[in-house]
C-alpha cells in the first residue's frame, strides 16, 4: 500500500437494518434495491438506450451507479419503510461523442439524461478494450513496421503488440493517443520478456491510425529460453512434492450473502463491483452484543487510483507513468478467479458487470470470492500459571473473512484482499504478481554496463527498469457514527529532571486533532506518530474516545520532483494520508480523468 486517503464525514449516526431486499443472483428489474447496489445488467441496458437516444454515435468509457448523496443513503437506512424512501436510481456515464468527453447523469426512474457536462480539462477517459484491440492490430499492416520486422529477421505472425497510455508533459492541448510496444512470442508464452525494443508508435485513438513511428535502434530480442513461466514447463524450479492442502468447512461457511449485503461474525457490509475501482465496500458495521446494536465503522472504502511511474528515460520508456484505474479501469481489468487456486475450497464466488464500448453489459464471472481464512494463527491466548492448581490456558483461533479480487493490468496481476477480523480490524492488502515490464538491452553481463541504465540487468538482454506502484485508497470512515476527528498521536520523549524517579527518561503521548484540511496532510514513517480516527462525541465507559487506528505497513514515498509532470498529475502521492470533508462531487471517478 503506497498511500492512503480518508474522508471524515458530517452526518448523523443511524442503526443498520437487518433486512435487505434484493437477492444475490436476481437480475430482475422488479426487485428492491439497496441504494448502493451496482447497476444491474438490465439497468445498464436502459442506460445504454437512453444515452444512445441523445447521442447516437457515442462510445462508453465508464458506466456506474451515480451514488446517492450520503445523507439520502443514511436516511433510507434509518427509515422503517425502506421501499418508500429509496433514492432515485441514477447512472453516471463517461462517454466520448464527436471528440468530446461527456460526464452524463441518467435518471432510470425518469428514463432520461438529467445532466451532461462536457469535460474540458487535460485528461481523457479510460481507454476501452475495443480501442486497445483495434490499436494493437494497426502495426501488423503498417508497411514501415513490416520493414523493421523483416530487417530484424523476425516472423510477423509471432509479433504481438500492447498499448500504453502516454502520460502528460505540460501540453495545453493533447490528442487522445496511446503508444504501442511490440513483442516477439516465438517459443514462449511470456512475450513480455521479449520486447522488440527501439521501436515506438503513436496511435491516435479518435482516428484509430498510426500518427507517429520511429525505428531508432535495433536491440537484440531477448532469448525465449527460460522465459515460459508455466509450471508444466518450469518443472525444475518448483517443488511439486507437497501434498495437497484443503480448507474444509463441513458445516458450510459462517457468512451469508443477501442481495449485496454480507454478514459474518459481528460484521455486516455492502459489496459492489465497479468498473473503475473493483470492489466497493460500504456501510461496514459491527454488531455490539452489549449495546444490542450495529456500530458503524466505514461508510465507503475502495481503491481510487494506482500510479505506476517508470524511471527509465529512454525514448521508448520515459512516458510510462500509468494510472491503472483512471486509464485502464482497475475493475474492468479484473479476471475470473480460478476455484481452488485463486481462492480456497471453501470460497463462494460472485460475478460483476462492466459496460463495453457500445454500452452493452459484459459479465466477469467469479470476479470476487469470499472465504473464511484460517491459516493456523492465534487470535488471542493466555496461559495462567500463577493460580493454584492446574495451568489455565485459553486460545482463540484467528479466523477472518476475506473478500478477494484479482485485476490483471497487462503484465501485472494485482491481488486485492479486504480482510475482516473478529477483533474489529479491517486489513487491506495489495499483492503484486504476474510479470515484470522489461526493456530489451544490448547487455548480457552487468560488467558491460558503462552508462546509466535506469534499472537492473535481470537476464541476458533483459533490463528491469526501476518503478513504483502507488495505490490510493478512499476510506470514508464512520467510527460509531458522526462526526469523526482525525487525531495525530505523537509519541514524545520526556526527560525526568525533577528527581521524581531514578529513571532519566520515558515517553508519553501528545495528541493533536486536525482542525482544517491542511492539518491532515500526513507523511507517514517520519517520527513516532500514530494516526487515529475518533468519534469525539462517543466515549467508552471510562471516558476514553472511541476510534480506530490507521496502521500502515511499509510506507512508500515518492521521490519525483514537485515540478515533474507525472508528479503534478499524481500529486496525491505527495502525502500518504489526506483528509477532506465529505463532498460527493470531489470524489475520484467523478472526473473524466485525474
Ligand atoms: C453517426 O455515424 C454515422 C456513420 O459514421 C453517420 O452517418 C452519422 O451522421 C453519425 N451521426 C451523428 C449524429 O453524428
Ligand atoms: C522461432 O522459434 C523456433 C523454435 O524455438 C526457432 O527454431 C526459430 O529459429 C525461431 N525463429 C525466429 C525467426 O526467431
Ligand atoms: C487527546 O488529548 C485530549 C487532551 O488531553 C484528550 O481529551 C483526548 O481524549 C485525547 N484523545 C485521544 C484520542 O487520545
Ligand atoms: C464540493 O466540491 C465542489 C467542487 O470542488 C465545490 O464547488 C463545492 O462548493 C463543494 N461543496 C461543499 C459543500 O463544500
Ligand atoms: Cu512493478
TrEMBL record:
Contains 1 topaquinone per subunit. Keywords: Copper, Disulfide bond, Metal-binding, Oxidoreductase, Signal, TPQ. Residues 125-221 form the Copper amine oxidase N3-terminal domain. Topaquinone (TPQ) is generated by copper-dependent autoxidation of a specific tyrosyl residue. Its EC number is 1.4.3.-. It is an enzyme of class 1 (oxidoreductase). SUPFAM superfamilies: Amine oxidase catalytic domain (SSF49998), Amine oxidase N-terminal region (SSF54416). The modification 2',4',5'-topaquinone is found at residue 412. InterPro entries: Cu_Am_ox_TPQ-bd (IPR049948), Cu_amine_oxidase (IPR000269), Cu_amine_oxidase_C (IPR015798), Cu_amine_oxidase_C_sf (IPR036460), Cu_amine_oxidase_N-reg (IPR016182), Cu_amine_oxidase_N2 (IPR015800), Cu_amine_oxidase_N3 (IPR015802). Transmembrane segments: none annotated. One of its GO terms (biological process) is amine metabolic process. Residues 1-30 form the signal peptide. The keyword RNA-binding does not apply. Residues 34-117 form the Copper amine oxidase N2-terminal domain. Residues 246-588 form the Copper amine oxidase catalytic domain. The active site is at residues 324, 412. Its cofactor is Cu cation. GO terms for molecular function: copper ion binding; primary methylamine oxidase activity; quinone binding. Homodimer. Belongs to the copper/topaquinone oxidase family. This is Amine oxidase. It comes from Sesamum alatum.
